Amino acid sequence: MAVQPTDTDLRLSSRRGFLKRAGLGLAALAAMSAAVGRIATDRRSGRELPGSGSIFEPRREDLLKHWRRRLNRFRLR
């Protein structure tokens, strides 16, 4: 005698049920990674940048030249 699958077995093993669970799982994974990423960036933002005179700080003259070159095309002629 063959055993008839129950309604819950059909719902869990159907393609629609699988796609629904997979979609919810991916959404949960994306939400968790976004939450963990936000927590990680909050920890990093507490670090201070190097002080003045650091090799990583752009010089004021270089910044002025950069913006002068970039905004030069908007000059009235």
Describe this protein with a few key phrases.
single chain, 77 residues, mainly alpha, elongated
Walk me through this protein's architecture:
The protein is mostly helical and 77 residues long. It is built from three helices and no strands. It has helices spanning 7-13, 15-44, 60-71. The termini are far apart.
Content of β-strand:
under 5%
Helix-strand topology string:
HHH
Largest sheet: none
Q: What's the helix count?
A: 3
Low-pLDDT segments:
none
Number of strands: 0
The assigned structural class equals mainly alpha
The shape is elongated
The rounded Rg comes to 29 Å
Estimate the mean pLDDT confidence. Answer: 77
Question: Quick summary of this structure?
Answer:
By secondary structure, the chain is mainly α.
Topology:
Blueprint: H1 7-13, H2 15-44, H3 60-71
